[in-house]
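Why this split exists: single-chain examples teach little about how molecules sit against one another. For that reason, every record in the complexes split bundles all components of an assembly together and asks for one structure covering all of them. Below is a record exactly as it appears in the raw files.
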Amino acid sequence: MRQSLSVVLERNTLLTGEFATEPYEVAWAREARWFVRLLEFRGTQTRLEATTQISPDGLQWCDLDDCKVSLRDPGLVSWVVREFGGWLRLKGVVAGDGEAREGVAAKVLIYLVLKG
Amino acid sequence: MTKDALAEQRPRPAARWADPKLSRFDPLERILVFDDFNSGTHGWVELLGNYDGRSDLDTVDDHMRDFRPPQLSSCTFFDVGTHGAMSGTYALKVATRPEAGHTAVAIRRLTMAGRGRVQFETCFAYKSEAASQENQAARQAGAGQWDGNTHPSETQFGAFTVATDICDGVRYHCVARYLNTDVNNSLRQQWVYPVVPEPTPREHFQGKVKLPRTADFTAPDPNDWRPFGSPQELCYNEVPTKVNWHYLRWLIDTRTRSNVELQVNDRLFDMRDVPVPAYHEAYGSLQNLLNFYVSVRTHTNVRNFLFLDSVVISVDW
């Protein structure tokens, strides 16, 4: 039987500005899928943009590909990542319309679902 | 008693020698758990505080909502690549955030089918995260000068803990913590125990306690921890990317709700006089609860890691 593991990397976390999830080891897994559950957006025209990052060592990071998700509405979104090596994280930004940053935030749960 | 004298007293079941992976352990008669992390997490999961009937996770206590999911780690580092575990490639890794006071906790949930001696064994290693441009570990508290032998990152590792949550009508915690450094990042290398029971979500619900996010959830006041035995130097092995596995065997007795002894490599600590704080109030829904947890706590803004190669939990009932 194949191995599987679902983890919650952020739990009801209020993200503001630039963010990155904690490094997570996935060398054993052949499949990975992000689920981001957006509970609430605060501010005007607030959006959450995120990119999957990979790493050889958990210290140095680069983007996996050109895929950048841009989320503007509460709800659940998911996307798959492939050929990711040994580590995964999500790096992104929560931004609003214009320059104002005060009160701009997104409340999220971030799940990583892995199968070996 | 020395470790050697102890070994002579204990019978060696022949069956154990037939399994090389099990032969590094010294289990009691009945093995409840043999967790080899090359085949999954075996029920070790992030500890989370309790939440309300609407599944509103905002109702989880602040200090119990971010204990981090354990990882199946290949022990991979920037300098040598994959170090691997003691057996096979993977170990269970419990990792803090890079934030002073942050604690990561993985828990294993069982119940008791009897009363008597219960033993937790593991092969473990502990490390601080290596410095990088992004994490700036070399500039964080605890980092000293490199002298070619001792590495600054050793004093950036706070503490790791092995502990239980047990309820037989009375709820109590047996706890043993290796305090590598104190909260001022000074080397202590001392085994310690708490003299108070762990604050619970119900105590918060009842308005008795409200702890901040990075509070030490096992016993928040550093003054509530006491040393047992003399200091023990472990094998951090100079730099943050060498993994040397240590043997740990911890024996408790659920018939007497007490600690018995702790063996870590060649040191044996008599814990029979180490008190076990119990709750004065009764808790429902927990009959025969037998939980083990391991935690790691950083005292500086550097990630701390606890690696477990494998775990054996055995009993004499």
